[in-house]
User: Fold this.
Amino acid sequence: MEFVEAHGARIPIVGFGSMRLKEDAGREAILSAIRTGYRHIDTAAFYGNEKEVGDAIKASGVPRADIFLTTKVRDNNLKADDFARSLDNSLKLLGLPQVDLLLIHWPNLAVPAAESIGALNKAKRDGLTRHIGVCNYTVALLDEAWGVTREPLVTNQIEVHPFLDQSKVLAASRRHGMSVTAYCPIARGRVPGNPVLERIGAAHGKTASQVSLRWLTQQGIIVIPGSGNPERQQENFDVLDFSLSPAEMDEIATLKRADGRVVNPPQAPKWDV
Ligand SMILES: NC(=O)c1ccc[n+]([C@@H]2O[C@H](COP(=O)([O-])OP(=O)(O)OC[C@H]3O[C@@H](n4cnc5c(N)ncnc54)[C@H](OP(=O)(O)O)[C@@H]3O)[C@@H](O)[C@H]2O)c1
Assistant:
């Protein structure tokens, strides 16, 4: 496995997104991902599956220290007291004293950055997480967060895939020395069937999904594809054993389009375009 290093964090570049994986079938799917070899698991209070994630990690027998575990606090829990309660509940459900990375799931403009980022800092100071970061932060929100944080923010988890131009926020994240974690790295199923990605994949004996994941990881971007299916989990894991040529990288970059964004809920900030 390759790792991405940022502000002292060492993060496996291919992780596993656990959203939608719940109850017995979800726990089995998460366990299958760990058995496939994933050592970076992404969950969130909002996903309602932290118990399943914690149970799967224990059932796997893989030492806790070998798994990089991320959870998130929802945007409606960013005031200091709510934040602490949410994290306490997450750790109880996970059955763990500490996560590796704690993220703000969505920004909430009604809560001052000093308070939400302050609560994130406190979680790290209290030893409840090894590292902290954010999700869905724009260039302006990143600059504001860095203006108030005392601990480094190690990642910005954002939607990244070939159909979306994220160059501005990618550049801003890097300017702050942060890693970028790509969610929806296969555009939630829109990647398979794309003629360009299929053609490039065929030339390497790979699928379009594997090409999308390789295009991201080859740029040093962490990916967290999600799948409940063991075969697709394996497919999404096997993406570091081939390389795309500079011409292929450039051609994939031409696939971005104005309506490429998949995730745009009501609480989304004004995106950088
Ligand atoms: N921070 C945030 O705001 C945020 C937002 C969205 C997601 N996330 C995180 O990012 C993770 C990934 O995002 P996502 O699940 O929305 O999108 P994704 O990983 O791009 O796509 C997942 C979807 O594609 C299917 N799929 C997976 N691998 C495939 C393959 N190789 N070929 C064909 N289809 C495949 C899956 O179905 P099957 O299960 O049937 O394989 C699932 O429906 C989530 O699990 C979550 O942890 C974070």
